[in-house]
Amino acid sequence: MNKSKIASIVLVILAVVFLAVFPLVFKKDSTINVIILILLYMTIASSWNILGGYTGQTNLGHAAFFGIGSLAARILWVKGLSFSLSFLAGGLVAVILALLIGFPAFKLKGVYFAIGTLALAQILNVTVGNILPEMSYNPSLADYQLVPRYYLFLALALVTIGSAYLLVNSRIGLGMMAVREGEDAAESLGISALKHKLIALLVSAFFAGLVGGAFAYYHVSYYLNMPFGPEWTFDSMMMAYIGGTGTIIGPIIGSIFFVGLKQLLVWNVGEYHLIIFGVLFILIVLFLPGGLVEIWQKIQKMFTRRRRLEESNLSAMKRAEPLRKGD
Amino acid sequence: MLHGLGQNLAFGLLVGALYGLVALGLSLIFGVTKFLNVAHGELLMFGGYASFWAFSLLGLDPFLSIPITILFLLIIGALLYMLVFSRTAKLPEESKIKNTLLVAFGLSVILQNLALRFWTADERGITTSYARIVFTLFDVRFPLVRLACLLVAIAFLLGLQLFLKKTYTGKAIRATVQNWEAASLMGIDIHKVYLLSFALGAALAGVAGTLVAVNYSIMPAMGLGWTMKALIVMVLGGLGNIPGTFIGGLVLGVTESATSFFISSNYREVAGLVLFFLVLVFRPQGLFGTKES
Question: What is the CATH number of the domain that holds A193?
């Protein structure tokens, strides 16, 4: 195990411990809500990244899975089922939806997949809005507690990111990336593109559905079709891109950045954070396709190269030493 | 029943002509440059606002404000091309489409929020003094405004066709569509062709925006809905096929009005999207396209 790996493991542990004790130290609801928002976006962006980043299938219909998960969980929960079961049901329903639309959607390649999934999500969005136009109210508002919701989001974010990490470092993950780099080439090596895309879609939908369920648990009252809105897809996609698609850390950075920017700017100038975020997103797509992670890697590489250069200079000097003694 | 159906069909065709115009700019841009500009709906919104302000501040009739809209959107389109889209002009086709799709999504977020800052979230529309005039033919009612929109849509479709077929610049554009590398070897400045096509496409979106402001309403969040309509029409008609685009618009208009007649007007949008998805999966070359293109 090399030094940088140990350092990152220590960093992860520190971050998790920090987040775990956070609500015990900072008791202000508004602060906890900000962290919840970050964790929510982190999870949905990470789940988008499994299919959109690692498998290269730009899914513009991610909101459908988030929405259906929240819808199923909310309805079951309000009807009296225990929340934990409703929550799992949300993830499951999202997987079923993914199975239903996966086969036809993956007939579409490249950009057609993108606009096709956008159409599917909009179909669901409008239909749910038509059938269930009413506001959904929290059934037990009296004993609403923020802290358990915080831990639900934290646990979910950790499980999602952990699963994504395990998945992309497995053989299947390698297959997914091979499909991203070139579908025909991957197929010619015996990697089934459809199979890998489907696995990525199912995992991605499952976690999006779960985080939808968490959203249903967290929000006091909202229109039932609100989680189906396309902005859920676009925001997660932009976060993944700004952080760096196809990396584990990318959506994490992107979501912190997104919510941070929102907090910084929302107080005085309205929705300016979205304008800045949009500009940044365009700049990254055009000039820095690796996202903010790429900047970091470039800086790191510069330093290690310099260090290596210094080391080689040093060893060259050492080698030169005896010669100098000799003359 | 039968009478209602006829009325519905007539309205579907009139709306469809407008849809054709809505998609015309998107189709032109995609056909020439292979930029998938999903900020099309936002450009349309800007056109709608230009006419709205010309109407409410200067008292200018929306149909007479079309030249202003065109000028406004030509400038915006040219700026967007020079600042943003030109960076992707030389990419291979596949990644060009994908990158411009992403970039345009970013743009739509920016433009939507700028509109929110400038013009608030209020829904606005243009109601002209002649908005209520209706002609009746065989018991079917034709509102004057809709007929005027039909004329405008046809005029711009024919104008664009003539421009592409008859003028030297139009021929340069068509040559670029066929093979941009060969065209550039023949001395055609590709960047100029792209710039012109993009600005023209934006201007057409602006004209469509004026008509939308007259017939429906405009607001900052309207963009995505109209972008979807334009995408649907473009796919129905075959990508980059300009006469096909117009027919695609009619098909969408009739599909929508049939849906509201037989099912419910709440599902108009869904019907279009379902049709869109089916065509994407089963006939990606469009309803009227040939296999090759």
Answer: 1.10.3470
Q: CB of A268 within 8 Å of any CB in chain B?
A: no
Per-residue pLDDT of chain B (293 residues; tens, 9 = 90+): 666 777 888 888 888 999 999 999 999 998 888 888 999 999 999 999 998 888 888 888 888 888 999 999 999 999 999 998 888 887 888 888 888 999 999 999 999 888 888 887 788 888 777 777 777 777 777 787 888 888 999 999 999 989 988 888 888 888 888 877 788 888 888 888 889 999 999 999 999 999 998 888 888 888 888 999 999 998 888 777 788 888 889 999 999 888 888 888 888 888 889 988 888 888 776 666 555 44
Tally of residues, chain A: 327
Tell me if chain B has a CB within 8 Å of the CB of A277: yes
Rounded-to-integer distance, Cα A138 and Cα A22, Å: 26
Give the residue among B276, B282, B287, B220 at the shortest CA–CA distance from A114. B276
B101–A58: do the CB atoms touch at under 8 Å? yes
Are B106 and A278 in contact (CB < 8 Å)?
yes
Q: Do the beta carbons of residue A66 and residue A208 sit within 8 Å?
A: yes
Structure tokens at B37: 């500009």
Residue of B nearest to A233 (CA): B105
- Residue A214 forms part of a structural domain: yes
A100 close contact with B: CB closer than 8 A: no
Helices B144-166 and B242-262: angle between axes, nearest 10 degrees: 160
Instruction: Output the pTM of the full model.
Output: 0.87
B269 close contact with A: CB closer than 8 A: yes
Q: How many domains does chain A have?
A: 1
Tell me if chain B has a CB within 8 Å of the CB of A114: yes
Taking an 8 Å cut-off on Cβ atoms, the answer to whether A111 and B101 are in contact is yes
Q: Is residue A91 part of a domain?
A: yes
Domain range for A161: 28-289
